[in-house]
Amino acid sequence: MISKIDPVEQALIAKAKIDTDIAPYVYHYTSVKALMSIVESRSFWASDVMYLNDAREVAYGADLFKGKANSLVKDKSRNEQFRHAINYLCDFVGDKVGVCAVSFCFNRDLLSQWRGYGGDQGVSIGVSSKYISELSNYDLLRVVYDRSDQEGILEAMLLAYANMFVDKFGSRVEKDNEFGEEFDFVISASYYFEKALAIFKDPAFSEEGEIRAFSNKYVHTKKAGVKFRERGGVIIPYYELPLDMNRSGVFDIFTVGPGPSVDLVQKSIEVFLEANGLKTPVETSSVALRK
């Protein structure tokens, strides 16, 4: 199903895929407790973004999609089949169903990220962007903050999707039954649009320089390898992004964020990493975090 709509994916990848030569390492911010789980499980957790994103962030992407889709539907130069394709897609985009991701940043020592940990001790983990990009089930995409770029990506994706839909299904303008060929095609396309919405953020957050590694598994079943964790009383689906601890160059510097006992924390992480077979440098943040 997914492979049938490569032009839609390419419209997204062309604008959002990061250059691993320019950014050889990306950095995941987390707590010391979570760091221990990551190292011991040999994996990051790509969690369903529907359960993680701020409600305003979800609304931002959904509103952007609706606006661009509506403008194409109202374009009188488009034929009925084209408008049908867009309207059909709109029935499925916006729920964030199945889109799972791990967040990273370009910067390993960023004040705005350390502030998010409040009383918890934060740490950033440097990981090879090339390693993640080469994983068969993951796409590493930069978050897009520029409004014109966001609209350009959506328009390119919508045009690629609608043109494929019309070429494939011709003059049909009625929705087929669930699990029919047309239904499958639209569902497959919707996953790429959900992924696009998950990389659109308000320009006010551009300092974050966020990157997301997306799992290409969308159906939350045990057969697909889904796992679950609890946070704040909510059960969150996730997939494991495997980490090869024995492969040279997978990790970059681990950075201990601002806190009351950074030297002690640094030493404890060094001991922990060495016990788990990692000889990765551990440094302390140069950021002064005011309480």
SSE diagram, text form:
Elements: H1 6-16, E1 25-31, H2 32-41, E2 43-48, H3 55-73, H4 80-90, E3 100-105, H5 111-114, E4 122-128, H6 129-133, E5 138-142, H7 147-169, H8 181-197, E6 210-215, E7 227-231, E8 234-242, E9 251-256, H9 262-275, E10 282-284
Helix pairs in contact: 1-7, 3-4, 3-7, 4-7, 7-8
How big a fraction of the residues is strand? 15-25%
Helix content: 25-40%
What series of H and E elements makes up the topology? HEHEHHEHEHEHHEEEEHE
Spans of at least 5 consecutive residues whose pLDDT stays below 50 are none
Structure description:
With 291 residues, this protein is of the alpha+beta class. The chain has one domain (2-284). The protein is 39% helix and 21% strand. The chain is built from nine helices and ten strands. The strands form two sheets. A six-stranded antiparallel β-sheet has the order 5-6-3-2-8-7. A hairpin with a 2-residue loop joins strand 7 (227-231) and strand 8. Helix 1 runs antiparallel to helix 7. The radius of gyration is 21 Å and the shape is elongated.
